[in-house]
Design goal:
Layout lengths: L2 E6 L8 H13 L4 E6 L27 H16 L2 E7 L7 H10 L19 E7 L17 H11 L3 E7 L9 H24 L5
Parallel strand pairs: 1-2, 1-3, 3-4, 4-5
């Protein structure tokens, strides 16, 4: 049996494209496995309340965080370390991450616990992480917004380069195109292709080694 940590960060509870896409992966993963779903919008982590939480206890200097803050961080890190795979769904808000997702990153990226260090090794190295991003406009090469997605590169850096996870990005653009807009058909086609790809990924990630 494998475990998937499923994170959603959209503020839209019902018609969210990113939620629909992560749900497709989770549904394909679920048979015979465990899915732990954390809704970062409805149950957001607090902003990091103490600078010591940036480090594992043996690496800290200065005062200690309070017990409640320690417990919150342990719970979030424990969910990540216990998962065999991660899927994160997020829309692009003001060219960047939804703030609850940033707070989650601040809690779980910890040298000495999750990020490589002499005392922790690389506990997440090679684990799959699927980033599912939805963007209201066109952020492709040559588009006016090309290079203005400041969310996905941060997650690729933290989860991939820093924590060593095997990151896959699945994106859908033009989600704010009007129903009569010529870009609407493109957005719908990207959505359908992303659904297909995520179902395949979920099924593959859910297969435990024999």
């Amino acid at each position: 049996m494998a475990t998937l940590l499923h994170l959603d960060a959209s503020a839209e509870p019902e018609d969210s494209r990113s939620r629909a896409l992560t749900a497709a992966l989770a549904s394909a993963f679920a048979p015979g496995n465990t899915v732990v779903h954390r809704d970062l919008h409805t149950d957001p982590p607090p902003h990091l309340p103490h600078p010591g939480l940036h480090w594992a206890p043996p690496l800290r200097t200065g005062g200690a965080p309070g017990p409640a803050a320690e417990a919150t961080q342990r719970r979030l890190i424990g969910e990540l370390l216990d998962a065999d795979a991660l899927v994160v769904g997020y829309p692009l808000y003001n060219y960047s991450l939804p703030s609850p997702l940033k707070a989650w990153i601040d809690h779980v990226h910890v040298p000495g616990l999750t990020a490589p260090s002499p005392i922790s090794g690389s506990p997440l190295a090679g684990r799959p992480a699927v980033l599912v991003t939805t963007r209201g406009g066109d952020y492709g090469p040559g588009a006016p917004n090309a290079g203005r997605d400041h969310a996905t590169p941060v997650l690729e850096l933290i989860l991939g380069e820093e924590m060593g996870m095997d990151v896959t990005v699945v994106g859908v653009g033009m989600t704010l195109a009007g129903r009569e807009s010529p870009e609407r058909a493109r957005s719908e086609a990207e959505h359908e292709e992303a659904l297909r790809h995520l179902r395949e990924l979920g099924s593959r990630l859910g297969r435990t080694p024999e």
